[in-house]
Design brief:
The structure is a single chain. The chain has 211 residues and is α/β, with parallel strands linked by helices. It has a single domain, classed as 3-Layer(aba) Sandwich (Rossmann fold). The protein has 8 helices and 5 strands, in the order βαβααβααβααβα. A 5-stranded parallel sheet has the order 2-3-1-4-5, with helices on both faces. Helix 2 packs antiparallel against helix 3. The radius of gyration is 16 Å and the shape is globular. The mean pLDDT is 93.
């Protein structure tokens, strides 16, 4: 079963936890699942992740950050995601190109055309089959981040930045509603997981029926 699922959402939404829970649930069904993340997922990508997100790293312009994200992404796509899909595996990615549009363009002001062009180059045109968007009010999301500690460079941005990111995601969902599944991330972990499983099941049946 070859299927590419990405998870997106504002900081503090719980999307990383939900991506892991979905991967675990599908593995328990006997499916071959690869869980990865952005930035990261490769040796090079993990090195770039430290540079991008560590608040103690040297300052970077929004465009420079976009280029670093793109470098991590192309390495991940070419060496991890494409090979796994070619093997018929189900790939789950914690963030993908939509994050760069929401954060670097809508949040930080890099021209949208520039970000989209870099995304096309970095992904080689590979897009997700399904994108799960875990929503959270930015103020509540930031409260969660404070409670768990260890905020990264983007987490530390002001509230209005995170509100722009959220609106960016909403614009992306309006562009391609058939790809997106939206769930409310403010509930319990179990409730959010249940909503995601309910939404994903029809997609899984579609792919299974096509095999």
């Amino acid at each position: 079963m070859s299927l590419f699922i990405t998870f997106e959402g504002p900081d503090g939404s719980g999307k990383s936890t939900q991506a892991r829970l979905l991967a675990d649930a599908l593995q328990q069904r006997g499916l071959s699942v690869l869980l990865t993340r952005e930035p990261g997922g490769t040796e090079l990508g993990d090195e770039l992740r430290e540079i991008i997100l560590d608040p103690s790293s040297p300052p970077a312009t929004p465009l420079a950050m976009t280029l670093l994200y793109s470098a991590s992404r192309t390495q991940l796509v070419e060496t991890v995601i494409r090979p796994a899909l070619a093997e018929g595996r189900l790939v789950i990615a914690d963030r993908y190109a939509d994050s760069t549009i929401a954060y670097q363009s809508c949040g930080l002001g890099v021209p949208l055309d520039t970000v989209r062009a870099l995304a096309r180059i970095a992904t080689g045109g590979l897009g997700p089959d399904v994108t799960v968007y875990v929503d959270i009010d930015p103020e509540r999301g930031l409260e969660r981040l404070v409670n768990r500690g260890g905020r990264d460079r983007l987490d530390a941005q002001a509230l209005d930045f995170h509100e722009r990111v959220r609106q960016g995601y909403r614009a992306l969902m309006c562009e391609d509603p058939g790809r997106w599944v939206e769930v409310d991330g403010s509930g319990t972990t179990e409730a959010v997981q249940g909503a995601i499983m309910e939404a994903i099941e029809p997609r899984l049946r579609e792919v299974a029926g096509a095999v």
